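Schema walkthrough. Field components (list of strings):
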Amino acid sequence: MRPTDLRSKSRLPLAFSVPKREDQDNEDSFQRSAKGVYALSDGASVSFDSASWARILVRRYTRNPEFTREWLSAAIAEFRKLYDRDSLPWMQQASFDKGSFASLLGIRIADGGRAIQVLSVGDSLAVLCDGDRITATFPLSSAAEFTGSPQLICTNPMQNAFLDKMDFSYDLVADWTFRGLEQPALLCMTDALGHWLLSQRDRNSSPISVLRRLRTPGAFARFVQEERAAGRMKRDDTTLIALW
Amino acid sequence: MAYKAEISRENPTCILFVIDQSGSMDEITEAGRSKAAFVADVLNKTLYTLVTSCSKSDGVRNYFDVGVIAYAGSQVTSGFGGALSGDIVHPIHAISENTLRVEERKKKVDDGAGGIVELKTKFPVWFDPKSEGGTPMRAALGKTIETVGGWCEQHPGSYPPTILHVTDGQSTDGAPEEMANGLRQISTKDGQALLFNLHVNTGAGLEIVFPTAETDLNDDYSRMLFRMSSPLPAHLAKFAGDKGYTIADGSRGFIFNGDPQCVVDFFEIGTRPRLVADR
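Field assembly_structure (string):
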């Protein structure tokens, strides 16, 4: 097999996002750095200010992708400075104390794709493809694993207790490579699209080929609307980052 | 399939508490407080939790319409006071804005760096304990039918209403079972109204939690409350199981001789319809 010249490929991402409803805020956030670091976060609507929390997570990750407990504490501290807790009305204070929740999917691409590290907390999905074939997904591998109550990163440290049992560099990480793939591609998506993709993967028409055709925000929005209308995609903020 | 409707601002669901405030609710529990005081405390905490789950930095979103029907003596009234006393059911943002008072309490929390700090926290109060007179359960369920029926007519596509009925004794105004049966017949397109019954006790006696058959129960009264109760839908059954309760096919939303922990869990499980679209 002829080796792929990974470094010669231009990998500017296509990034599209559609809110759950046109009149509501989109609480997904995406950011990338010039050093091959990408971050996607899905803020949970039923929490205090998940949009700000998601923005903080992706910004901090693209600046420093070494995700550690100290990293998380610093991110929480930044979020808490956004509000004067004691002056909030009781209902907002209660919601602030309960916490804001978001996923974090971080990608580091080194050496032109020879080394790809995926970090994930929550149910945002990374997908490695070769042409229209899915070769790996992380952190979930089947549609049934989308439970509706994923473990997300929270601004309330008590809600992050599930991370105490985890080895961050092992349990939260997958190591991939473009090496050996003829048509490598990497996709990142929030859970509505991730669930759609994994539920469609065994159909005759590859879901990757469907996504590959979406090259403009308008085309992506039409696709999401059609799949929602057909009942194949959950109504939620829906984001796709594609490195074809 | 029932109980799958998306709960959103466009399609809120209804949660109705039906609370026995008869004289016997003043009995003191093993924890040293009256049943009425304990139920009022749990109800305040439940409303606090419901409001909190709807609160964002930009305000309270109306995922729930919430009501309280209180019954005692010969009266069936709204359990809310002040501006909320005129109607039974209110959008949750109205409930958040109309408390009896907001108390300041202290709680200990993780400081995120391995330590514990004490935080002053605002805690709203809607209910003070009451206990007097008889137990007009039949009339209370009649009022519940009227309330739930009207709500379902206005919200035909919504997740159906959940009714949490809390009592400690037998009806003094006639048999309530046919009223409960009528109540459970009311439906939206997403399923029949859910009636869950909680019989509270002082802590003495064996509690029976989420039974599957009348034969699990020892007397006519508890068997009637069992028949009055809806089976737990799958997602609530799972939640109850996750909390450590033994759940089987056909488990009813019914607790008999519930101790204080059962009361807390009953409210938590019963007010847990899924916010499907708004994770």
